[in-house]
Amino acid sequence: MGEDFLLTTETAVQLYENYAKDMPIIDYHCHLSPQEIYENKKFKNITEAWLYGDHYKWRAMRANGIPEQYITGNASDYDKFIAWAKTVPMLIGNPLYNWTHLELQRFFGIHEVLNEQSAPAIWEKVNAQLTGDGFSARDLIVKSNVTVICTTDDPADTLEYHQQIKQLDDFNVSVLPSFRPDKGLEICREGFLPWLDRLSTTYGSAIGDYETLLQALEARVRFFHSIGGRVSDHALDTVMHEESTREEAGIIFAKALKGEALTLEDEKKYKTYTLTFLGKLYAELGWVMQLHMNALRNNNTRMLNELGPDTGYDSMNDNDIAKPLVKFLDGLEQENALPKTIIYSLNPRDNYAIAGIIGSFQGGGVAGKIQFGTAWWFNDNKEGMLDQMKVLSNLGLLSRFVGMLTDSRSFLSYTRHEYFRRLVCRLIGEWVEEGEVPLDMELLGSIVEGISFKNAKEYFAF
Length: 462
Fold this sequence. Notes:
Elements: H1 10-20, E1 25-27, H2 34-38, H3 46-50, H4 55-63, H5 77-87, H6 95-108, H7 119-130, H8 137-143, E2 146-153, H9 160-166, E3 174-179, H10 182-185, H11 192-203, H12 210-227, E4 231-236, H13 246-257, H14 264-285, E5 288-293, E6 295-296, H15 301-307, E7 315-316, H16 322-334, E8 340-345, H17 351-359, E9 370-372, H18 382-395, H19 415-433, H20 441-460
Parallel strand pairs: 1-2, 2-3, 3-4, 4-5, 5-8, 8-9
Antiparallel strand pairs: 6-7
C-alpha cells in the first residue's frame, strides 16, 4: 500500500496525483449522526470510532470465530480492539484489509500492519491522538476535505441539529438532510402505525386519512428543502409497481388504519401511488431521487431478536427489477415529472439491466440525468467498483458519473473515496496502456476530476 497502491500504469499514477488526489469530497449519502457532528463528538478510543455500529467489521469478526461478546457484547473496548486486530490478518483479499490500513495511515500516520502483536502499541498511538486536539468529529470531516454531507433522515425527524450546524461560525461544511420515507411506504410492516403517530406529532396534526398523509409528506419535503435538503433516498428492497388511483390508495390506507389485512396487490398499489406522488414533488423542487434495490434484510431471525436490525445479518436479494422499475420511471416520464434519479442494486446481476434502463430515460438537457449509482454495500470492493464502472462505460457515459459515497456511520470512512478514485484512475490508465484511449491528459484529467467531485457538484446543485 505504497504511493502507487492500486495504480497499475504510469498514466494512472499521473491521473491520480495531478487530478484526483486533492479533489474535495461530496458525500451525498451516508449515515453519520447530525447530532454527533453538531456536538463535535470526541472519541474515547479507537474502538468507539472504528467498531461501534460497523456491521462490515462485525460480519468479518464472526466469520473469524470471534465470540459475540467481543463484537456487540459487554467485553471491554480494548478487548474488542484486540479481537478486531486478530481478524485483520485473515482479511487478505477483503477491502476491509485495505480500508483499515488506509484509515490508520491517513488519519493517524501509522504505517504498521495491524495484527495481534502490533495491536497494543497501535491502540496507545491512536488513542493518544484521538483524545487530543484535532480529532473530533468535525475535525475528521475537515481533514478529509469534505464540502457536503447528506445524512439520512426520516420525514418525522425535526432536523434540529441540521439547523444548529448552520449556525456554527467555525465549520464551513454543509450538512444537509436526505428525505428517507421508507417507514411511510412500508404499509404492511408492524411499525407503520407507530410511525404515523410520530409523523403526526412532527407535522402538528393527526393523520387520519390518506389525503392528510400526502399533505404531511409534502409539508415535510418542503421543510427539508428549506433546510437545504436536495436529495431523497428509498430502500426498495422489492421493486413493486401496480397502477393505482388516489382513491384506491386512500381506501387501502384506511384499511391499514383499522388493522385490516392487506393483500399484495394492495401493497403494490399503495406504494406505487405514494412513491409516484413523491417523485413528482422531487421533480418540481429539482431534487435527486435515490433508489436502493435488492437488499435482503434481517436474514437471521434469532440474532434479529437479540440484537435488532443493521447488525450484520443482511445479504443481497435476487428479485427481478427491470419491468417494475421501468413502469415506475415511465409513469413519471409520461407526465414530464421524472426527477434526476440515481439507481443502485445490491445484486451485481442487475448491473447491465440498470445501465440499459437509465439510457431510456436520459434527456431534458441534463447531463447524466439518470445515474447508475456507484457499487453499493457488498459491491464496494475493487472488483465491484471496476465492474460497475465498466458496465456504465459500455452502455453509457462514465465521464458523467457522479462517483463515490461513503454510505457509512463512521467518521473515518472517507478514505474509501481515495480507494475509489485510485480505481477510476487505474481503469482509465489501463485503457490508455491498451491503446483504446488517447493519452490526452487534459481530457482524461477533466474526466477524473468530474467523477471525483465536479460532476456531483453540478448534478446536485447543493
